[in-house]
Amino acid sequence: MSSTGMSACCLSGKIQDGKPKGREQEIGGLPTYVAEPENGDKTKTVIFLVDIFGWRLPNVRLLADTYAAQGFTAYIPDVHEGDSIDASFLQTVEPQLPQREQLSLAAKATSTATVAATLGPWLLKHREAVARPLIEGFINSVRYIPGTNKVGVIGFCWGGRYAILAAHKEFSAFEGKGVEAAYACHPSLVAIPGDFEPVGVPLALALGDKDSLLGEKEVGQIEELMAKKRAGEQGEKVEGEVRVYKDQVHGFALRGDWSSERDRKSMDEATEQGISWFKKYLA
């Protein structure tokens, strides 16, 4: 079994301009950002599982607003319980790739040490034994909200793995719990094949071909595992989709550079991939 970790690229990216339109309320004991379609319909619900920068990051809130405009009710719970990593790390610790390549060796060494000191304790505090029950409890709470019918989950980086775990058959939408579909964008900390073999509901993935956490070998392994799922080689057939985005690094679907036409196009396509996936499987 192989596994991926987290590194400096998990802290890179851009803050998006714009003012979120949703509201905050408490759901399942967690502060939650809520974005709703104009008609307030909750029959198609998508839960956003955030990266290490948390539920207040403008990028994820604006993306939830985009989903709401497409007819989904979107929830972004504070699954870090007030302990997300400060967004200032996006540029001060780990700038975008072109700027990183111009750093001196000393500056790179300082950045690496700072990242290790930040990520290590944070990942220990928010390990699976803590985060997974919190996330699964929130999903089940959402299913009890009046008007809710089908529920999907989308995750990014740290949250991408938990979107995959939420798609496991043991937690899928049986007896009124779990989710009907999942979408994971550039997940980190995944175990291959361990996190993928138990998947029991439709799962889509958006991966970058320049992601330092998921190299060509790992992407190939994931593609092979999902192909076996679609063919029913491990039992019941499970729909899956793996799309690899050219010249995109870890975090691209949420924290890409909007001033770059290439990056903006990939972000738009990753957004459309998710919206199309959920329109199909939450209908």
Total strands: the figure is 10
How can the largest sheet be summarized?
Answer: 8 strands, mixed
pLDDT averaged residue by residue: 88
- Strand coverage percent: 15-25%
Summarize the structure.
With 283 residues, the protein is an alpha/beta fold. It contains nine helices and ten strands.
If you had to describe this structure to a student in words, what would you say it looks like?
The chain is an alpha/beta fold and 283 residues long. The strands form 2 sheets. An 8-stranded mixed β-sheet has the order 2-3-5-4-6-7-9-10, sandwiched between helices. A two-stranded antiparallel ribbon has the order 1-8. The protein is globular and about 55 Å long. The model has no long low-confidence stretch (mean pLDDT 88).
List the defining traits of the structure above.
single chain, 283 residues, alpha/beta, Rossmann fold, eight-stranded mixed β-sheet, two-stranded antiparallel sheet, 38% helix, 18% strand
How are the elements arranged and paired?
Blueprint: E1 2-3, E2 23-27, E3 30-35, E4 44-49, H1 58-69, E5 73-77, H2 89-92, H3 97-100, H4 105-125, H5 128-143, E6 150-156, H6 158-166, E7 181-185, E8 191-192, E9 203-208, H7 216-231, E10 240-245, H8 252-255, H9 261-281
